[in-house]
Structure formats: structure tokens, C-alpha cells
Design goal:
Elements (H helix, E strand, L loop, with lengths): L2 H15 L11 H11 L4 H14 L3 H6 L2 H8 L6 H15 L9 H4 L7 H12 L8 H11 L8 H14 L5 H14 L18 H5 L15 E12 L2 E6 L10 E2 L2 E4 L2 H6 L3 H9 L2 E13 L3 E12 L4 H10 L3 E3 L1 H6 L4 H10 L1
Parallel strand pairs: 1-6
Antiparallel strand pairs: 1-2, 1-4, 2-3, 2-7, 5-6
Helix pairs in contact: 1-11, 2-3, 2-8, 8-11, 9-10, 9-11
The protein binds a DNA duplex (10 and 10 nucleotides) through α2, α6 and α8.
Catalytic activity: Hydrolyzes free adenine bases from 7,8-dihydro-8-oxoguanine:adenine mismatched double-stranded DNA, leaving an apurinic site
EC number: 3.2.2.31
Keywords: 4Fe-4S, DNA damage, DNA repair, Glycosidase, Hydrolase, Iron, Iron-sulfur, Metal-binding
DNA sequence: GTCCCGGTTG
DNA sequence: CAACCGGGAC
């Protein structure tokens, strides 16, 4: 099948099936960029409300650039991959303060922006500026590998390169943005990962995978995820209406988000036995009113299974001064309910806080 | 429960 | 090239 026939069929399918999404039918690079960052590693249904909230809070890149980091992170709460939010803000500031508020217009320049890789640069360049550069996301891998029978490993650097080159050989010079949207939408709705309805597909006759019975095995992806088990002992320490929190550091999950003081064990046994590691320390600084064992939460991520046990310590108001000293010596913070609400927390912590009362 | 999905970065 | 998150399908 020639590139022209392929793109024509994809575009025709798109004209019949395209979803009406708020970031379509705009050429505004800010809106396109925002939607693409949110949609990285994220389904449309999950990202849509976040997109709307960001756009409502920050109608322009200037608004976002001038917003406090804490607010940017809080708006991202629950969406995952929090480095995207940090990069979003850093990029907004760069564009506002360095680029004079004007988005760069070419793939070459766009790809230099923080949080903008090959895919996102191609999306912005083609959607906003009509540059004929192919987007290659998970949808495109799937469509091209099946239709044209490309069996290269999409998890490897070399495989990705082959798909990128192939995709760029297909892209029509007129309306490349429309075509890019079309092939991704085709992958998202028609050529879906599992059990696609090939009978209704306009490319069925000429599709390699369909003809060879290889729909279930293409695209080929080598990755094997090794899941790490972790055991968190959390101390939920409250004093009056205030809560002890700490900000998570670099080099681990939930970077920059807020959770509670914790001890991590390597064995489940330790988690079950070592209940009150914080008890002694807290007991030293003042009287603990109540200690309540909460049940253990199992938090499943792709690469980690986290077993989190929460113990709630209620510290007497009379020991507040001592608690404050301990909190600051450990690099923690004692915050009121309003502040706690305003900070970005991981889903696990939100689950606990919601269930706790 | 288990498996699967997905862009960028250090 | 491994690490980063959460949700949805089955």
C-alpha cells in the first residue's frame, strides 16, 4: 500500500470517527502543548478533567509561569508521573521569561523544551505550525506494526528509530497535523491493543497482521517489568488539628509530593512486627494521647507493590512546643488542615486520609 | 486479583 | 536503559 493510499484511508476514517476534544480545532500552541503533556502516559478520559482545570486556572502561558509551584503540583495531584508537572511549570517559566512568551515553532526548537520529547515536539510542530514531522506514540507503533508488518521491538532504541523513520516516510506534506491526529485516533479507537474489530476496519484487506493472523502479537514489545515490593511504616502524627508531613525527595517515587514520616522495611515480617518505631521518639518529647493502628494499605503500581501500614499518634496539645522542635529537627513540617489540603499528596495518602475518618 | 497501557529523563 | 504512576479491561 502506497503512503498516499494509506494516509487517505486514515484521513477518511478520521473524518467519520473523530472525537470532539477540546484541544482539537485549535492552533494555539499553549493549549496543544498543555494537552500533550497531560496526555503523556495518560488516557483521554483520565486527563480531560485535569486539562480543563489547568486551562481554567491558567488561560495563558503567562498565568502558568507566574503561578506558585505548590499550586501547579496540587492541580496535578492524582495524575501520576509528577515530573511532568514540574517540567510543565519549568517549561512555562522558560517560555515566559526566556522566549518572551512566544512558543518556538519548529520541531528542532520545541524538542529542547523541558518535558518535551520527540513525540510532543512533533505533535506541537504539526498541529500548531503545520510542520510535516510524524508523531510516533503507542498508537502509531501499533497501527504501523500491524498494517505494514513491522516486527521490530518497540521497547528498544533501535526499534523506535525504525518506526520513526518509517512514519516520516508516510506523512503527507499537506495537512500533516490532521494526518497525525488521524493515525493516533485510529489507533486509539479502531486498531486498539486487544481484540480490535478488524472486520469493520477500512484497512483490513491490506493489513499485514490481519492477513497473517498476527494481530495479537504485533506490535512486539520486549519489556519485562520487574515489580519491587516495598513495606512502608507511616506515622500519622497529629496535634490539635495539625498534621506532621514531610516532602519526598529526589530519586524515588512521588518526588516533591507530601506524605508522612515513614520507615521503610525490606520484609513484610518487619512491617507486621515493628509497629511503633516512632513511639519511643514521640514518647520522649511529650505525652501521646492515643495510638491507633490503621489497617495496611496495598498500593499497586506498575513497577512497585507498596504495603503501607499507618499508625496514628495523637500528641497532647501541652507537648506542642516539644513536637515542633522534633518536627523541625527532622526536616518535617507541622501544618493545619487547610495547608494539608493545599499540598499535593500521592494517591496512597489520599486513600488513607479519606478512609481514616 | 492479573495484565496491559503509555513519553521523557538521568 | 531503567525508573517514573494510576486506572481500566478482563
Amino acid at each position: 500500500m502506497s503512503p498516499e493510499v494509506f494516509s487517505d484511508r486514515i484521513l477518511e476514517w478520521y473524518s467519520l470517527h473523530k472525537r470532539d476534544l477540546p484541544w482539537r480545532n485549535t492552533q494555539n500552541p499553549y493549549i496543544i502543548w498543555l494537552s500533550e503533556i497531560i496526555l503523556q502516559q495518560t488516557r483521554v478520559a483520565q486527563g480531560l478533567p485535569y486539562f480543563e482545570r489547568y486551562l481554567e486556572n491558567y488561560p495563558s502561558i503567562q498565568d502558568m509561569a507566574l503561578a506558585p509551584e505548590e499550586e501547579i503540583m496540587r492541580l496535578w495531584q492524582g495524575l501520576g508521573y509528577y515530573s511532568r508537572a514540574r517540567n510543565l511549570h519549568a517549561c512555562a517559566k522558560d517560555i515566559h521569561f526566556i522566549y518572551g512568551g512566544v512558543f518556538p515553532e519548529s520541531f528542532q526548537e520545541l524538542v529542547k523544551l523541558k518535558g518535551v520529547g520527540n513525540y510532543t515536539a512533533a505533535a506541537i510542530a504539526s498541529f500548531a505550525f503545520g510542520e510535516p514531522v510524524a508523531v510516533v506514540d503507542g498508537n502509531v507503533f501499533r497501527v504501523l506494526s500491524r498494517v505494514f508488518g513491522i516486527a521490530e521491538d518497540i521497547a528498544s532504541t533501535g526499534g523506535k528509530k525504525i518506526f520513526e523513520n518509517f512514519a516520516n516516510g508516510l506523512i503527507p506534506k499537506q495537512n500533516p497535523g490532521e494526518y497525525n491526529q488521524a493515525i493516533m485516533e485510529f489507533g486509539a479507537l479502531q486498531c486498539i491493543p486487544k481484540s480490535p474489530d478488524c472486520a469493520s476496519c477500512p484497512l483490513n484487506q491490506s493489513c499485514f497482521a490481519s492477513n497473517k493472523g498476527m494481530v495479537a502479537v504485533l506490535p512486539f514489545k520486549s519489556k519485562k517489568v520487574k515489580v519491587k515490593e516495598r513495606y512502608f511504616q507511616y506515622a500519622h502524627i497529629i496535634c490539635g488539628g495539625d498534621t506532621v508531613i514531610r516532602q519526598r525527595g529526589e530519586g524515588d517515587i512521588w518526588q516533591g509530593l507530601f506524605d508522612f514520616p515513614l520507615v521503610e522495611y525490606s520484609e513484610n515480617r518487619e512491617l507486621e512486627e515493628g509497629n511503633h518505631l516512632f513511639f519511643e521518639e514521640l514518647d520522649k518529647i511529650g505525652t501521646i494521647d492515643v495510638v491507633i493502628d490503621q489497617h495496611t494499605f496495598k498500593h499497586i503500581l506498575t513497577h512497585q507493590r507498596i504495603f503501607a501500614k499507618f499508625v496514628r499518634f495523637e500528641v497532647k496539645e501541652s507537648a506542642r512546643t516539644e513536637l515542633e522542635a522534633w518536627v523541625s529537627s527532622r526536616g518535617y513540617q507541622l501544618v493545619d488542615a487547610e495547608k494539608l489540603e493545599a499540598l499535593a499528596k500521592p494517591r496512597l495518602i489520599l486513600k488513607y486520609l479519606n478512609e481514616e475518618k
